[in-house]
Write a structure and sequence with these properties.
Aminopeptidase, three-stranded antiparallel β-sheet, 7 helices, 29% helix, Acyl_CoA_acyltransferase
Length: 243
Amino acid sequence: MDLQAVAATGWGFAERAYIGGWEVRAAGGRTSRANAALPLGDSGMPLPQTLEAVREWFAERALPGMVQTIDGSPLDREITDLGFTETHRPALRQTAPLGPVLETLKSSTDARHVAEVTTELPEDYFAAYLRGRGIPEFKTLLTSGDALIAFAVVRGDNGQALSVGRVAIDTGTGYAGIAALATVEAARRRGLARIVMRDLLAFAAAHGAGDTYLEVEDGNAPALALYASLGYVTAHRYHCRRL
């Protein structure tokens, strides 16, 4: 199982093309995952020519050429040896069997407090997910891709969105990716993110998922502590190399 390829199904894009087995994506420069080349197969060309083709594709869109690579992988080392040493937005991909994570979440949350789960992007999602507020591309990023996508919202008594999250289920492999988690500042440290994750993973399990993954910045100590308490372990570290 190639976790990088699985994760590629779980995030959207505004534009996509292929250079052989390399997938290239663009979304106006918003987020590294949606604006990078993903080396998911053989490009059919020597690496220097492939990287030049990637650079040209992004240059046509007034964007810097980026390649997402796994830190320390043979490809990552080859690209470094060609002189491309600048990296951006390092992060960890973590994974865990879905069943135990879901049981831990069920045992640590109030079953009476539930999230609304829908396959449509809630209109007020960005009231909590501030990273995407006011950025038109984010609606496309959250709703497109090659996976079965669902959203969860925990609301307050007045209907306000307090905590949100997204799951993308790769039906081919049974992996469910949790992403775009956010809780409004006034509602933090109340376990709402656990409720969001619980109900998203319950949805994923009902749709055949058996494993789960997520992506987290390696300096995000609170998130890393939460995920570790649920049984997630790091599969690899990745970043984008600028061409």
